[in-house]
Amino acid sequence: MKKTIFSFLLTALFSFGAFAGDGDKIPASTVKKLDGTKVNSSTFSNNGKPIIISFWATWCKPCKKELDAIQENYPDWVKETGVKLIAISIDDSRSSGKVVTDVKSKGWDFEVYIDENQDFKRAMNVNNVPHTFLVDGNGKIVWSHNSYTEGDENTLFENVKKLAKGETLNH
Question: Which residues are CB-contacts of 137 (< 8 A; sequence separation ≥ 6)?
């Protein structure tokens, strides 16, 4: 009985440690650029400046609303803080063709990748979209938010500004 409980606790400990959370580095997983080129997510960087990672899907209206809201001010955000937005589509192979169409029609000028097998999504412990992470200049995840309500982008940018100034974020 004691061995069973110990085995369960040990398994649970390692299982929880496998997911990204506050203070964790971006996990390694393969995603695709829009041109099909494969990239390892652990190589995402921004020269010591903040990174926003936003998981979305073409079928998710709140996801698109969030990315549209960010896009409206994204050039100003970049000028003020140097932040980089990386949007990760979780569309599978059946719907991933719509990603390029959406990106072009909406005029999004941030980096977009496709996670067709959803390996990166699982590694980041994303259960549903939209799910947004904020990564500091050292590549550590320091904040996350799930879902989208109009105005959430303002909270996100306030956190980006604090991070760019070297301040610690409170959840």
Answer: 46, 47, 48, 49, 50, 163
Instruction: Please give the Cα distance from 17 to 11 (Å, whole number).
Output: 10
Higher per-residue confidence, 117 vs 2: 117
Structure tokens at 146: 């799930």
Domain of 107, CATH number, reads 3.40.30.10
Model pLDDT, residue 4: 43
What distance in Å separates the CA atoms of residue 125 and residue 21, rounded to the nearest whole number?
A: 8
The tally of domains found in the chain comes to: 1
Kindly report the pTM of this predicted structure.
Answer: 0.85
Q: Model confidence over 51-87: pLDDT tens digits? A: 999 999 999 999 999 999 999 999 999 999 999 999 9
- Domain presence at residue 41: yes
**171 in a structural domain:** no
